[in-house]
Amino acid sequence: MTKKHTDDAVEEIERITLDHYETNAEAFWQGTRDHDVSQNIEAFLKALPQREGLDLLDLGCGPGRDLHYFKGLGHRAVGLDGSQTFCKMAQEHSGCDVLNQSFAELDLGEQCFDGIYANASLFHVPSQLLPSVLSACHRALREGGILFSSNPRGNDEGWNGQRYGHYMEFDVSQRFWNDAGFEVLHHYYRPEGMPRQQQPWLAIVSAKRN
Ligand SMILES: C[S@@+](CC[C@H](N)C(=O)[O-])C[C@H]1O[C@@H](n2cnc3c(N)ncnc32)[C@H](O)[C@@H]1O
């Protein structure tokens, strides 16, 4: 279900959440720079054409761990984050261009990416804003382009400390994705090989369809 906020409240949600990342930017980098997200990267890259030089957007790239990896594979990778500090760190760590944009004010252009990778970022989008964020991703992708997302799952929306989160299970996510013109190709739960109740993450690989 969509939670209704005023525009001011959405602005406040973004400001407080981004402030949290700004304040903890260096600690976040130290705590996540060695995270093994190879399962997610592989799932994303496997769904894309098998060649170098793809145009990829890392949406909510943080300090740039995965952006650096995509560039190293020979792709034209661009980052995007609402935190200025993360944008600067991601630029320095990867050598890629990084757009400083918030999800509420995305300006991604049209048909300019083969793939969009959103690792642990879309859950920060309030449900009310999610259709417009997904539509911006849809417009920015070329025909058949791939949207990858991985998010903590659940049936809840609200504050978790200083960070706002919208937690969805697969069926709810799929509805949002389909409504925005994406076909879900497959999904899985993480970490791999654990019982479902010990898999808090839901990853979705989807393709632009109409
Ligand atoms: C959990 S971190 C994930 C970072 C990175 N993708 C990773 O896997 O390490 C969430 C990211 O989303 C960004 N973010 C949160 N709210 C945002 C907003 N409203 N607009 C743009 N970026 C936002 C944060 O700055 C942060 O980089």
Brief overview:
The protein is of the alpha/beta class.
Characterization of the model:
This protein is of the alpha/beta class. The protein has one domain (7-208): Vaccinia Virus protein VP39 (Rossmann fold, 3-Layer(aba) Sandwich). It is built from seven helices and nine strands; from the N terminus they run αααβαβαββαβββαββ. It has a seven-stranded mixed β-sheet, with helices on both faces. Strands 6-7 form a two-stranded antiparallel sheet. Helix 6 (130-140) links the parallel strand 4 (113-119) and strand 5 (141-152). The mean pLDDT is 97. Bound molecules: S-adenosylmethionine (SAM). S-adenosylmethionine is lined by residues 14, 17-18, 21, 32, 60-62, 65, 81-83, 86, 102-103, 119-121, 124.
Using only C-alpha atoms, the radius of gyration works out to: 16 Å
Number of strands: 9
Q: In percent, how helical is the residue content? A: 25-40%
Order of the strands making up the biggest sheet: 3-2-1-4-5-9-8
From the helix content, strand content and strand pairing, which structural class follows?
alpha/beta
Tally of separate domains: 1
Which topology does CATH recognise?
Rossmann fold
Taking pLDDT < 50 over at least 5 consecutive residues as the criterion, the unreliable ranges are none
Q: Give the full name of the CATH homologous superfamily.
A: Vaccinia Virus protein VP39
CATH level 1 class label: Alpha Beta
What about the largest sheet? Answer: 7 strands, mixed
SSE string, helix = H, strand = E?
HHHEHEHEEHEEEHEE
Principal-axis shape: globular
Ligands in the structure?
S-adenosylmethionine
* CATH architecture descriptor text: 3-Layer(aba) Sandwich
Strand content: 25-35%
Kindly report the average pLDDT value. Answer: 97
